[in-house]
């Protein structure tokens, strides 16, 4: 009886070994492993450059590193995070970031949807209008910033020419802290509304015409048709466009730097990205800037994470 039990155990062990050997052979012969010489080296280099940089930034945020010598890792603490969260400059930049994120994203989505509906409804010269609306998106942030710097010029800018023609005094669009952030948001909306228009237009064109016909037969107006039937089907387009817009709003450093050509943006427009770069390169406070960068990364992950989870639940990942 004991001999029979031992034989069964040996058989089970042998079958298990054969199973693992078969799985290992299948894995080694898979396209993933066979293509490793082509993607492996770029993946390792990218991991070192990207994730290594993130890890190094995270590590020095717990030190008092000021850019000279080697960071001292003997005493790690949260002093830089505490200092940032209690700083008026950080709080003001975070508030501006929130206003930029919410205002810029919301208006871009609404305006892009409105333009997409007009184009989808077959207005005259729709193809030409689509090209005109999308053109700003093809411009670099530096070009856009210089264009709007000229538009906002107090003495010769087009906006102030219109304002003075209407009988009002010239407006210092970027010099007045109470309206400077609004002016920046307006310029960014001009550049990105074309992007949201294209995203929504692609979603509208994927909706069958039968739904419009059925709504028309039921006597629904065009506005009710879009609000009750069409717009709810654009949820995925809205989510994907909103994620791109919000991530850009968190790191709109390039546009603000190109607008004035220095680390300090116009009063009232300082955001976390500009504060981070200024404290690092102008004041040499690398650990403090690393702490801000880490918090910016967490904010970005807070935007992208739910989106990726939503895509995963939808089966798109």
Could you give a short description of this structure?
The chain has 317 residues and is mainly α. The chain is built from 15 helices and no strands.
Strand residue percentage? under 5%
In helices, the fraction of residues equals: over 70%
CATH class of the largest domain: Mainly Alpha
The helix/strand class is: mainly alpha
What pattern of helices and strands is seen along the backbone?
Answer: HHHHHHHHHHHHHHH
Number of H/I helices: 15
Largest sheet, in brief, is: none
State the low-pLDDT regions, or none. Answer: none
**C-alpha Rg (nearest Å):** 28 Å
For the residues shown, what is the average pLDDT?
A: 83
Q: In CATH terms, what is the fold-level topology of the largest domain? A: MetI-like fold
How many discrete structural domains?
Answer: 2
What spatial form do the alpha-carbon principal axes imply?
Answer: flat
Question: What gap, in angstroms, lies between the N and C termini?
Answer: 53 Å
CATH evolutionary superfamily of the largest domain: MetI-like
Keywords: Cell membrane, Membrane, Transmembrane, Transmembrane helix, Transport
GO biological process, one term: transmembrane transport
Organism: Haloferax denitrificans ATCC 35960
Membrane topology: Multi-pass membrane protein
